[in-house]
């Protein structure tokens, strides 16, 4: 379904979304939001390494 370039795009989007959620979550501390953000960052890094 996806070629190599699309996986990289999804990885960058997941990484950016995770980082932005971490930045927002630092102000009103919410453990679940931080957990989801860490999972998105790990997903983004994994997809970027996959290429």
Overview of this protein structure:
- It is a single chain.
- This protein has 51 residues and is an all-alpha fold.
- It has 2 helices and no strands.
- The protein has helices at 4-25, 31-50.
- Helix 1 runs antiparallel to helix 2.
- The longest helix has 22 residues, at 4-25.
- The two termini are 15 Å apart.
- The mean pLDDT is 76.
Task: Fill in the keyword field for this structure.
51 residues; 82% helix; mainly alpha; single chain; elongated; 2 helices; 0% strand
- The geometry reads as elongated
Low-confidence spans: none
Strand content: under 5%
Largest sheet data:
none
H-E string: HH
Mean pLDDT, as a whole number?
Answer: 76
The end-to-end distance, rounded to whole angstroms, is 15 Å
List the topology elements.
Layout: H1 4-25, H2 31-50
Short characterization:
This protein has 51 residues and is mostly helical.
